[in-house]
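Structural prep section.
Before we set up the soaks we want a predicted structure of the protein with iron/sulfur cluster in place, mainly to decide which crystallisation condition to try first. Input record follows.
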Amino acid sequence: MRRKRILSGMRPTGRLHLGNYLGALKNWVDLQNSHECFFMIADWHALTSDYADPSQLRANMREVVLDWLGAGIDPARSTVFIQSLVKEHAELALLFGMFTPLAWCERNPSYKDQIVQLANKELETYGFLGYPVLQAADILIYRAEVVPVGEDQLPHLEITREIARRVNYMHGGPIEPVTNAPLNPIFPEPEALLSPAPKLPGLDGRKMSKSYGNAINLSDPADAVTAATRQMVTDPARVRRSDPGNPEVCSVFAYHKLFTTDRVEEIAADCRSAGIGCTDCKKILAGSLNSMLDPMRERRAQYESKPGEVAEILEAGTARARTEAQATMAVLRERLNLVSAAADTMAAAAAAQA
Ligand code: SF4
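Run finished without errors. Recording the C-alpha cells verbatim:
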C-alpha cells in the first residue's frame, strides 16, 4: 500500500533538548515506519524572527541535523533537506501570497501572541505576518497529505488547507456539481496528525526552554545529564529524608513517568512511604535518561566524525526534495498560464494570430 506523505520541519535553533525530542523528534522517528517522510531544516523560517542576527544560523543547522541523525532519522528512508536550497518554496510562497486574503494571516492567533512574547524583536514585518503562507508553500509544494502538529499549530495548518482549497477551486479544473469540488485539484488538503507531545518540565520546574537555561540536551554527555538531574526541583514539602513525599508535585517523578516507565508505580509508592530518598530517586532517573541517550550520542558522534557524509545526506535529500518541488511548480505554472521560457510568450502570440 502506498504510504501517505508527511512534511515536517524545525527552525534551526541549535542543539535540541529533551523537550524538542518528546515534542516532535521522537514522533518523526516513529513515523518513518508508516509514512513517506520529508524533514526540512527551516532556515528561512528562522530568519522571520532572527533576520537581524543570523550569525549562528549555519552552526545551528549543523547541530540540528546531527541531533536528528543521532535520534534515529534515517536518511535511507526519509528525505532530509534544507529549505532555502529549494528555491521553489519561495516561488510558491510568492504565488500563494496573491491568493491569500490578508485577514487570514492577521487572524492567526499565534501572530499576536508571538509579537508580545518576543517583544525584544521587531516582528511587525511582512515576512513574519506571512509566515503561515510560507509554511503553506513548504507543505503543499510536496503535496504532503499529512502534517504532524501540536494543538497550537492547528490554526497554521488551517490556513494551509484554505489556501489549497482556494487555489484548487480557481485552477483545479471543472467543478463537480454534486461535491462542488474541482475535478483536477493541484494540491491535497493536508490532514493534521495530532501527535502525542507530553509536556516536560525543565530542571527548575518551568517549561523546558533553551532560553531559561533549564534544559537537558540530547547531546549532553552522560555525566552532565547526571549532574543536571541532581539540580532538579522535587516536592518542596519533603525537607528531610524521613518525610513522605508527594510524587505528583515533583519534576523528577514527571520524568520517571516518561523515561522509567517500568518502575513508575514502585517509585511512587517508595516516595510516599519515604522508602526512597530524593538523591537515590534522581540517580535512577539519570540511569534511565542515559540509557535512552547513549545510542543517540553514539550515532551522533559517528556522524559528527564524518562531516562529508552528513553533507552528502543533505545534498541528496535536497536534490530529491527539489525534484518533487519542481514537479509541483510545473503543474501550477501551467495552470496559471505562466511561461516556462520566453519563447512560449511568442508562440502564444503567434497561435493567437493564426
Ligand atoms: S523521592 Fe523522587 S519522586 Fe519523591 S519527591 Fe523525591 S525525587 Fe520526587
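Observations: The chain has two domains: 5-198+307-349, 210-303.
Flagged for discussion at group meeting.
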